[in-house]
Specification:
This protein is an alpha/beta fold. It is 48% helix and 9% strand.
């Protein structure tokens, strides 16, 4: 399946965000077991659910390390059927911002994230970037959410981060996949 660029026809930022959120919501599982929270969609226009980001590939490879039958064609379906869902702290890209405004946007996004956590009621939350751990903890606390909070290194540039990401996440994914196939 070829990745599709959202909002490519309009070039409109609002349309891109709307398309992105519509695509994201199409993969929301009926039973949310593990909510992944990233910082924001990348400014590059890449997007996990478009299947064109580094995070997508690292997550797919983690699932594949647990089940060799996972590939590009079935990964997002397996992700969803395992009860996994990925959202972002900030709905707008922040990776192009300097540190101070970037942190301010993340801090200002905590309220909306708190409402989302309250609405979704995940069994577990995993942060995908260490710099947002405090923001996610604050939002979870405001939502009166209590559950396991997994902190993962972003599997970006460095292979050691990607390896640590896969090593930390694979046992959790194995457990989720085992129990989802048993149900």
């Amino acid at each position: 399946m070829t990745p599709v660029k959202l909002g490519a026809m309009t070039g409109n930022r609002h349309a891109q965000r709307s398309d992105r959120e519509e695509l994201r919501s199409s993969f929301q599982p009926a039973r949310l077991r593990l909510l992944f929270i990233g910082e924001s969609p990348p400014a590059s226009g890449r997007f996990f659910y478009q299947r064109d980001s580094g995070l997508y590939r690292a997550m797919r490879d983690t699932f594949r390390s647990v089940d060799a039958s996972v590939d590009d064609e079935n990964f997002l379906d397996v992700f969803q059927s395992s009860g996994c869902y990925l959202i972002d702290l900030s709905p707008e890209p922040v990776d192009h911002l300097e540190a101070i405004p970037r942190k301010a946007v993340c801090r200002n996004s905590e309220g909306a994230l708190s409402r989302t956590i309250s609405q979704l009621q995940p069994a577990m939350i995993a942060t995908l970037l260490r710099s947002i751990e405090g923001n996610v903890a604050t939002a979870a606390s405001r939502a009166a959410w209590h559950g396991p909070l997994l902190h993962l290194p972003y599997p970006g540039r460095w292979s050691r981060h990607r390896d640590a990401f896969i090593e930390s996440l694979a046992p959790v994914i194995g457990s989720l996949m085992a129990t989802s196939s048993a149900n």
